[in-house]
Amino acid sequence: MEYSIRAANVEDCKDIARMITELAEYEKVSEHVKVTQKDLEQDGFSKNPFFHGIIAEVPEQHKTKEGHTKIGYALYFYSYSSWKGRAIYMEDLYVMPEFRGIQKNGLVAMEIMCMCMCMCRKSLVICGVCLSGKGIGKALMSKVAQLGLAAGCNQLNFTVLDWNKSSLDFYLNQGCFDVTADMGYHCMRCEGEALQHLAQP
């Protein structure tokens, strides 16, 4: 099946919002999604964007039964490690279920949909090949890795749900490592009233 990977634009925000909801439903956390199409338009496509995105798109003849041609996306932003310097963080990586495992030549590939926190031991190049096959998800992730390397990044970081053991095992077998297990770091968050309270002088 033919598909293309391209930079997201503001006109894609409606479909990105739809796929964010689909991803949250898969992860069983849909009640936590508060971001709207308008938020995405403002936060990703203003003068100083908070995130960047890429889109996977298929031709009209391969559109879904609902009429969608935008069938996958990745969101990312640049960050900084006080140890390693420039880094890129992949917030989301998603491919609609009926398009997972599809290669351009029509063969089945090992596909990805989830995310894992992956700080490769040598370089971002290794992270770029943490997924085998040539599916749509792999193409999206490879593009994020390419963008990171082009920006001089040394790390690609992302997260995986603890119940997605098959994906985590696969990443570990590729030379990636679990930051929590190996280094004892936990991902912490402060939000809502706690964030308001913390901001008080």
Q: Would you give an account of this structure?
A:
With 201 residues, the chain is of the alpha+beta class. It has one domain (4-199): Aminopeptidase (3-Layer(aba) Sandwich), CATH 3.40.630.30. The chain contains 7 helices and 5 strands; from the N terminus they run βααβββααβααα. The protein has helices at residues 13-26, 37-44, 124-128, 136-150, 165-173, 179-183, 192-198; strands at 4-7, 52-57, 70-81, 85-95, 155-157. A 5-stranded mixed beta sheet has the order 1-2-3-4-5, sandwiched between helices. β3 and β4 form a beta hairpin. α1 (13-26) crosses α2 (37-44). The protein is globular, with a radius of gyration of 17 Å. The N and C termini lie far apart (57 Å). This is Diamine acetyltransferase 2. Keywords: Acyltransferase, Transferase. It comes from Collichthys lucidus (Big head croaker). Belongs to the acetyltransferase family. InterPro entries: Acyl_CoA_acyltransferase, Diverse_Substrate_AcTransf, GNAT_dom.
